[in-house]
Recover the amino acids of this structure.
């Protein structure tokens, strides 16, 4: 049964997309590229649609750029965006989405943790009329227990803090339709939590369950401190719950203060005023630290406003390979435009 948050959509079945874009952000993945290249090339061979691969080199310090440039030189379907420095996974993925020209776009990792064969199931859902098809992990193979537990907690916490509609155990591995992507591309916030943004955009969404593989090679680029910082970005860029928590804590502290005041007055009236130094010190220090934490949280939001107000671009592109222009229209747009022009010339 759908949850009360789920909007009822009437699906409009459609045919296969004309072009499918695979967007792959990558940072220091030189070891994974030959394996990725073999897997993607064989995947594209039996694809019923025209494929396009967008590789985003997110400021790698190893030979990633050299390898992706070689791949692009051998295969014109492969396009490379080389960012001017490391901007982080979410922004690198955004750059790839900006340059994608497909009618359906799939975001994958370079480490092949998300099996490419699942994309066939995603395309099937796309044909049924879904605009977002996210991969939902049934199992995570080969990941340390800590990573599994922290990921489990992350998704449940994000659902509570960010959005009740946020699917659990679903990362950025997902298919997005052109319509949905056009909505997503209008959201240019600096602090990005793409999964939350895709949920915000709406449209008919569904899940495809799959087993997540271990990394083919190399190590995760999301160690614990980055996971925590990502969770904090997600919480503060999507929700004002931390600010609301401060208000509730402030009220609780206020009630404790009133209780203390009543006790102090009662002690004064009874002539017992000297004892109480310890409790006074405890309350003062707890309140002091609560005030500082609260200012810190408010400061985080003010900092975000400050960064947004600068209006900087999300990323800078140092170089591209096999790309004519970022605004290249999708085949469907081109077809629609051509049909419009024909109608005008007839009319
Ligand atoms: N990545 C990136 N920029 C970064 C960190 C990661 O483009 O600053 C890429 C990385 O190369 C990979 C994807 O983002 O293709 C997901 O990272 P990873 O697989 O390390 O994360 P995990 O799957 O362990 O959460
Ligand atoms: Mg990975």
């Amino acid at each position: 049964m759908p949850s009360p948050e789920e909007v009822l959509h009437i699906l409009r079945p459609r045919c296969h997309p004309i072009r499918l874009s695979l967007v792959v952000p990558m940072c220091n993945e030189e070891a994974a590229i030959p394996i990725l290249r073999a897997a993607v090339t064989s995947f594209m061979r039996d694809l019923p649609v025209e494929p396009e691969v967008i590789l985003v080199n997110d400021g790698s310090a190893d030979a990633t750029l050299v390898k992706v440039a070689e791949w692009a030189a051998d295969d014109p379907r492969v396009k490379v965006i080389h960012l001017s420095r490391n901007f982080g996974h979410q922004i690198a993925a955004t750059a790839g989405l900006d340059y994608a020209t497909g009618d359906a776009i799939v975001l994958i990792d370079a480490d092949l943790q998300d099996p490419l064969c699942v994309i066939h199931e995603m395309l099937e859902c796309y044909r049924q009329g879904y605009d977002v098809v996210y991969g939902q992990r049934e199992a995570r193979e080969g990941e340390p227990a800590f990573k599994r537990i922290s990921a489990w907690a992350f998704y449940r916490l994000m659902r509570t803090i960010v959005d009740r509609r946020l699917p659990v155990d679903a990362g950025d591995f997902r298919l997005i339709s052109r319509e949905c992507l056009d909505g997503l591309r209008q959201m240019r916030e600096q602090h990005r939590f793409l999964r939350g943004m895709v949920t915000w955009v709406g449209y008919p969404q569904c899940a495809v369950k799959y087993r997540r593989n271990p990394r083919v090679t190399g190590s995760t680029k999301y160690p614990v401190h980055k996971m925590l910082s990502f969770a904090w970005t997600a919480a503060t860029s999507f929700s004002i719950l931390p600010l609301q928590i401060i208000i509730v804590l402030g009220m609780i502290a206020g009630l404790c203060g009133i209780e203390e005041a009543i006790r102090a007055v009662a002690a004064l009236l009874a002539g017992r005023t000297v004892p109480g130094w310890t409790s006074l010190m405890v309350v003062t220090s707890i309140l002091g630290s609560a005030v500082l934490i609260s200012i810190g949280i408010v400061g985080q939001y003010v900092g975000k406003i400050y960064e947004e107000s600068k209006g900087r671009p999300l990323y800078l592109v140092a170089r591209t390979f096999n790309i004519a222009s970022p605004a290249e229209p999708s085949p469907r747009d081109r077809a629609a435009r051509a049909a419009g022009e024909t109608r005008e010339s007839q009319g």
